[in-house]
Amino acid sequence: MIHEFESHTPVLDTQTFVAEGAQLIGKVVMKEYSSIWFNSVVRGDVNDIEIGRYSNIQDNGVVHGTDDNASIIGDFVTVGHGCIIHGAIIEEHCLLGMNSVILEGSVIGKGSIIAAGSVILKNTNIPPHSLVIGVPGKVIKEIPESWDQIHAQALKYKTLWTERYGLLPNADGERYKGEKII
After folding, report:
1. Among 110, 132, 169, 172, which one has the highest count of C-beta atoms within 10 angstroms of its own C-beta?
2. What does residue 157 show for φ and ψ, rounded to 5 degrees?
3. Model's pTM, two decimal places?
4. 79: which strand partners?
């Protein structure tokens, strides 16, 4: 459901998907082919929230801002089931594993993978192409700069809602064709 808050209504590209039970509130921008899945909450009542092209917030995710920090999610980002992003920047081509938590002021560098259940503490800067695991999250290794599998994961969700759910079956843009995913 889309909710206005203090004269701000979420702005959705015409080619986006918001699943039943998802809640979008206030200063939220969803770009082309982005998707918000069942029972997720994207709450732009405190600060801005931006969801990049082809990015997906999977079931039960929460995206919120803080007084000093917007939540910005780049293009081709997969936010796994139950993730919380609270006033953080997620650069392009990242994968956030299920139930990971990214706290305010943090920046997740492009091409990074945050393992399921990891917690990124306040004001943490994760370098690009990092694999992060644990509580608190620690970079355990640098990963190759090839984003093909992360890219394919994002495309898989776009293809799921456009074609398999039949909501935009003739959608333009990139589509998933069975490539290997993360």
Report:
1. 132
2. -70, -40
3. 0.96
4. 57, 96
Cβ atoms within 10 Å of 165's Cβ, excluding its own:
13
Q: Does residue 95 form part of some domain?
A: yes
Is residue 178 situated within a structural domain? no
Q: Are 80 and 62 in contact (CB under 8 A)?
A: no
User: Which stretches of the chain are assigned E, i.e. beta strand?
Assistant: 2-3, 11-12, 17-18, 23-30, 35-36, 41-51, 56-57, 62-64, 71-73, 78-79, 84-86, 89-90, 95-96, 101-102, 107-108, 113-114, 119-120, 125-126, 130-133, 138-142
The single-letter code of the amino acid at 50 is: E
Task: With a cut of 90, say whether residue 146 has pLDDT above it.
Answer: no
Determine, yes or no, domain membership for 157.
yes
Q: Where are the alpha helices (DSSP H) in the chain?
A: 148-159
Span between the terminal Cα atoms of the chain, in Å: 30
- Stretch 34-43: mean pLDDT: 98
For the chain, what is the domain count?
Answer: 1
Residue 29 is predicted with a pLDDT of 98
